[in-house]
Write a structure and sequence with these properties.
Layout lengths: L4 H28 L11 H8 L4 H8 L5 E6 L14 H11 L3 E7 L5 H4 L8 H16 L6 E5 L5 H11 L5 E4 L10 H12 L5 H11 L11 H11 L15 H16 L10 H4 L2 H13 L6 H11 L6 H10 L14 H7 L1 H11 L20 E5 L5 E5 L23 E6 L2 E6 L9 E9 L2 H9 L7 E5 L4 H4 L6 H11 L4 E5 L12 E6 L16 E5 L4 E4 L3 H6 L20 H6 L11
Parallel strand pairs: 1-2, 1-3, 3-4, 9-10, 10-11, 11-12
Antiparallel strand pairs: 5-6, 7-8, 8-12, 9-13, 13-14
Helix pairs in contact: 1-15, 4-11, 6-7, 7-14, 8-9, 8-20, 10-13
Length: 604
């Protein structure tokens, strides 16, 4: 079944735009491929170093030119709940590889920070750049050239995009991503949000807030709301980098472990030494990235991926743009309601039919490219399944249910929750920005109000506590872009603005910083480009200027005469407090060379 005309036209223009860089990329990875085990080209001393610490059977296997070797890139640490389960995965993968007649080695570890821990604090200014560090760390791990395929253990916000960029840099190798799964459901997300608002208003204390948060984030696995981490898992499955059905299986369960072992065995089946060679750089083509953007919009996924998908695509020589993402959004209906776009969490989404149901609905509506390569085969239709465990420990895959088990969580394509995905580009004299309106009520899609200027989120929070945020206004929080301070998420501002909106004030946010998939109900023009420190017009807005944010028309404008606006001089605030502490001094070079948000905010 072919994709509809609109999505095919968008795909075609991406292919044409990308042709020179894509062809050069494919030529590079084709030159790097080998029909012999990759390590066979190493010298004896090199190879001896590569297997010196292995056990006798693995050492014997690696000494010859017959057995295949999987490289494991892991983002394990036991502070980050989503990654704690990865502690046991290498042994499962090694066991599965031996059962299939191969070998597996941990090729390297990559950093994995938690935005939930650093949110609102200095460490958050390392978050976006950690993506590119992860890509580089992946390259270091694979640079030993010992491996015929690689598996990637990562889940959360910048980690999966960084791993994808690293994997595509070694695009001649097959790549399978192995998730850890979400934690079981805890305190409902709407109740958590209610307690946060009460705390911000001084109506409950820290003890009550901590109790609420601890009931929400209570065990191993991904946080259950639909932010960037769970958007990552959706993307890996709909783009064919997971084995079918694996995104949202809870950790530390027999089915989860069985899927981990199956993924390792599949990695050995798709190397260049066999008949199903699936190099990740060739597998992930323009159609795969269009499918990812479709999934992002159909599920109301994280706005962080308007940055990450562009950077990931660029690593494969593909030129994806914000306009592509916005145009796809206009053609794709919203089929999922998961918090903050609804009350359900990802466990409820999975129970309602999950990825198998979603992919089938999108395929049948001609909203996905079906004839794409995946790690499982030659068609995305393979992913329209529901997984379970057989009595013998193998995985059974049955067709996804025809009817959603919860129509409030997953809808049919012909009766969606809304006709579009809700991610749009805003353009105007302030620059370009991204807005997600899938959780914003229609009467808030247009806000025209005077500007209140802030140069960091703490300044705005202090103004709220002091009772200075009265009346209608648009908060302009600037000098939060990648060049200024690494482009931290400003998620803590959502509680403040949510309270004011609930009081009846018409409020919005305009910022060159970021928000995640948890941006929620307040209209927010984010990722403003050019950023303030790059002489962007957002730096020339003055207190009291009238700003019009119009999500319906896709415009973002400060209502100031062009002559006056151009004549204004930029007064750059003192940003020295962003340059040191919490490791920020080590990222000075990153801040200097990073690209614009609409180009992936990448240092590459």
């Amino acid at each position: 079944m072919t994709v509809n005309h609109t999505l095919q036209a968008i795909t075609n223009r991406i292919i044409e735009r990308s042709r020179p860089t894509r062809e050069a990329y494919l030529a590079r990875i084709n030159a790097a491929a080998s029909r012999k085990p990759m390590r066979s080209a190493l010298g004896c001393a090199n190879l001896a170093h590569g297997f010196a610490a292995c056990g006798p059977s693995d050492k014997a296997g690696l000494a010859g030119d017959e057995l295949l070797n999987i490289g494991i890139i892991t983002a394990y640490n036991d502070m980050l709940s989503a990654h704690q389960p990865f502690e046991t995965f290498p042994q499962l993968i090694k066991q599965a590889a031996r059962e299939a007649g191969g070998v597996a080695q941990v090729a390297g570890g990559v950093p994995a920070m938690c935005d939930g821990v650093t949110q609102g604090f200095a460490g958050m200014e390392l978050s976006l750049f950690s993506r590119d560090v992860i890509a580089m760390a992946t390259a270091v791990g694979l640079s030993h050239d010992m491996f015929d395929a690689a598996v990637y253990l990562g889940v959360c916000d910048k980690i999966v995009p960084g791993l994808v960029i690293g994997a595509l840099t070694f695009g001649h190798l097959p790549a399978i991503f192995i998730p850890a799964g979400p934690m079981t459901s805890g305190l409902p997300n709407d109740e958590k949000a209610r307690i946060r608002q009460l705390y911000a208003e001084g109506k409950v204390g820290r003890a009550e807030l901590l109790e609420s948060e601890s009931k929400s984030y209570h065990g191993p696995g991904t946080c259950t709301f639909y932010g960037t981490a769970n958007s990552n898992q959706m993307l890996m499955e709909i783009m064919g980098l997971h084995i079918p059905g694996s995104s949202f299986i809870n950790p530390n369960t027999p089915l989860r472990d069985a899927m981990t072992k199956e993924a390792a065995k599949r990695a050995l089946e798709i190397t260049a030494c066999g008949n199903n060679y699936t190099p990740v750089g060739a597998m992930l083509d323009e159609r795969s990235f269009v499918n990812g953007v479709v999934g992002l919009n159909a599920t109301g996924g994280s706005t962080n991926h308007t940055i990450h998908l562009i950077a990931m695509a660029a690593a494969a020589g593909i030129k994806l743009t914000w306009q592509d993402i916005s145009d796809i959004s206009a053609a794709v209906p919203l089929l999922a309601r998961v918090y903050p776009n609804g009350l359900a969490d990802v466990n409820h989404f999975h129970a309602a039919g999950g990825m198998g149901y979603l992919i089938r609905e999108l395929l049948d509506a001609r909203l996905l490219h079906e004839d794409v390569r995946t790690v499982w085969g030659e068609t995305l239709r393979d992913y329209t399944i529901e997984p379970a465990l057989n009595a013998d420990g193998t995985i059974a895959r049955t067709p996804a249910p025809e009817v959603s088990a919860d129509a409030k969580v997953l809808a049919k394509a012909e009766a969606p929750f809304q006709p579009d995905g809700g991610i749009k580009v805003l353009s105007g004299n302030i620059g370009s920005a991204i807005i997600k309106i899938s959780a914003v009520k229609p009467d808030r899609h247009v806000i025209e109000a005077p500007a209140k200027i802030f140069h960091d989120q703490a300044e705005m929070q202090d103004a709220f506590k002091a009772g200075k945020l009265e009346g209608d206004f648009i908060a302009v929080v600037r000098y939060q872009g990648p060049k200024a301070n690494g482009m931290p998420e400003l998620h803590k501002l959502m509680t403040v603005l949510g309270i004011l909106q609930d009081r009846g004030q018409r409020v919005a946010l305009v910022t060159d910083g970021r928000l995640s998939g948890a941006s929620g109900k307040v209209p927010s023009a984010i990722h403003v480009t050019p950023e303030a420190l790059d002489n962007g017009m957002i730096a020339k807005i003055q207190e009291g200027d009238i700003i019009r944010l119009d999500a319906a028309q896709g415009t973002l404008t400060v209502l100031v005469n062009d002559t006056e606006l151009q004549s204004r001089t930029i007064q750059t605030p003192d940003l020295s407090h962003n340059q040191f502490g919490m490791g920020r001094e080590l990222f000075t070079a990153f801040r200097h060379i990073t690209g614009h948000a609409d180009q992936g905010a990448s240092v590459f």
